[in-house]
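for the writeup, i need someone to sanity check this before i put it in the appendix. the sequnce is what the collaborator sent (i think, or maybe the updated version? ugh). structure was predicted straight from it, no edits. if anything looks off just tell me and ill rerun, i have time this weekend
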Amino acid sequence: MTTVRLPLFPLNSVLFPGLVLPLNVFEERYRAMMRELLKTPEDDPRRFVVVAIRDGHEVASTAPGMPDQTAVPQRGPAAGFGDDPAKAFHEVGCVADAATIRERADGSFEVLATGTTRVRLLSVDASGAFLTAELEELEEDPGEEAGALAQGVLRAFRQYQKRLAGARERSLSTGAELPDEPAVVSYLVAAAAMLDVPAKQRLLAAPDTASRLREELTLLRAETAIIRNLPSLPASELTRGPTSLN
């Protein structure tokens, strides 16, 4: 089993391999993480792992911008994640490679990273300035009939896009051509579909590409049927991921 230890960045969202993640880093624990990553030579990958929060808060309750500034401050790398932070996170996450780490005048950071590899959390260490985790790298097994399933998912995704655009009373702009490599299709659709965190997490943790594509096909058909019967939907960009406050 191949293991690696990396800084841990918990979020209220799921990162998939190949997808871009913008971050606005202002909490001290994550500033410390970025300062440490900046010590890595530019030619080497500046890696950390993004994991979705199962039970806890992305931002500590008394961090800047939070509504209750009178609460007892929560400090330290595990603030907001309880006595055993490992239990607060989903088991499968994604390694992120920070292409850009830019420090602002106020000491916060603007970060642009890209998901690379799925990993399983084995343990979490809260003894330092920021959380780190021991991780097992997960291979991407194609599974059976991944190619045929990918084509079916692409067709279902295009129909889903059309229904979503119609429900918003706006025109559909497809932009670039969608890929046809099964694993890439599975991650792109998982990231772009308007699903909640538990559904996205299940897709990230799927045992192989074919299993992920099968579940996506079921989800897309169900979501398309729901949209067909809705008069309107909130206006949010289909393929634009949220920018984390941290």
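Residues 153 and 217 are 5 Å apart (CA to CA). Residues 146-167 form the longest helix (22 residues).
thx in advance!!
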